[in-house]
Design a protein that fits this description.
Number of strands: 0
Largest sheet: none
């Protein structure tokens, strides 16, 4: 991305960050606070999400102000700009990442064991971004083996940390 486009990108991203921060704050406010159980308010499950939501909102506001001062609100959106954006390789990678993440979060998680869902997600991610079209499958066995190894180690590590260090019970 050209340096001259950064204020515009900052302007748009600041709006996304603020919307995300507000949605996290709204969702965190609905979490139990355990006030009726006479425990410390800092042990409530909504404390960390509230803090993170507030940080996202605050940093988004700072980024918005900075981008407005640099005239980032002048987006200059044209049909040619939109067409160029959709043809850009970075956009393709972003959309693939977004699609994989949506499939993982909305379809895989909760329908299969966490280890399998996360392993499939990691394996698919690596293969989609590292696999070379036009090269035979056997010639890329190292890429596929590394994707498999990364998927197994990553999903296993995440599961172990959350299950045994953070004491999170996974469904299934």
């Amino acid at each position: 991305m050209k340096e001259s486009n950064m204020p515009k990108a900052d302007f748009l991203m600041s709006i996304v960050l603020m919307i995300f921060g507000i949605s996290v704050l709204i969702n965190a406010s609905g979490m139990p606070n355990f006030a009726d159980q006479n425990v410390s308010p800092y042990s409530a499950p909504g404390v960390v999400p509230t803090l993170l939501g507030a940080i996202f909102l605050l940093l988004g506001m700072i980024m918005l102000i900075r981008s407005i001062l640099r005239k980032g609100y002048r987006l200059g959106i044209t049909r040619n700009n939109i067409a160029a954006w959709f043809k850009d390789q970075t956009t393709h990678r972003f959309l693939i990442t977004l699609g994989l993440s949506v499939v993982y979060a909305l379809i895989l998680l909760g329908r299969m064991h966490f280890l399998l869902a996360t392993g499939l997600y990691m394996f698919s991610f690596v293969v989609l971004f590292e696999y070379k079209r036009g090269v035979g499958l056997f010639a890329q066995k190292k890429t596929l083996l590394m994707a498999l190894l990364l998927a197994v180690l990553t999903s296993g590590s995440i599961y172990w940390v959350f299950r045994y260090l953070f004491l999170v019970n996974f469904p299934g």
